[in-house]
């Protein structure tokens, strides 16, 4: 009886640790899945959407004008500069309901375009109203 309980407990433990949900966006090319599943993120906090993105966001800009939005890219600013205008780079635009307090000049020097943990704390609770994905990887 003890062995049966141990086997069941071990099975439950292994099953529960192996069943973690996989993130929606595994590679930058998967960013279009965010748009396909847009309804899942509308009127939800920005942090919920960002949890579904596995690739590192290397470039971010915020638009404090109406409508407020973030532009997320999976390539660095230097890589973006090297691309020609004819190359259609992948961009994820997330519009939010609340006004953004985004001031490029007040961001840390040398890290103006990086998304940080502090940004997640500051902007993570903003409400997503629209998602737009442009370009290709």
- If you average the pLDDT, what whole number results? 83
Overall structural class, as computed from helix and strand content, comes to alpha+beta
H/E element string? HHHEEHEHE
Sheet with the most strands, sense and barrel status: 4 strands, antiparallel
Indicate the proportion of strand residues.
Answer: 15-25%
In which range does the helix fraction lie?
A: 25-40%
Question: What overall form do the CA principal axes indicate?
Answer: globular
Radius of gyration: 19 Å
Total number of strands:
4
Number of helices: 5
Detail the poorly predicted runs.
Answer: none
In whole angstroms, how far apart are the ends? Answer: 56 Å
Biggest sheet strand order reads 1-2-3-4
Please provide a written account of the structure.
- With 137 residues, the chain is of the alpha+beta class.
- Helices cover 30% and strands 17% of the residues.
- It has five helices and four strands.
- Strands 1-2-3-4 form a four-stranded antiparallel sheet.
- Strand 1 (59-63) and strand 2 (69-73) form a beta hairpin.
- The mean pLDDT is 83.
Helices and strands in order:
Blueprint: H1 2-18, H2 32-36, H3 46-51, E1 59-63, E2 69-73, H4 77-82, E3 91-96, H5 117-123, E4 128-134
Briefly characterize the structure:
The chain is of the alpha+beta class. The chain contains five helices and four strands.
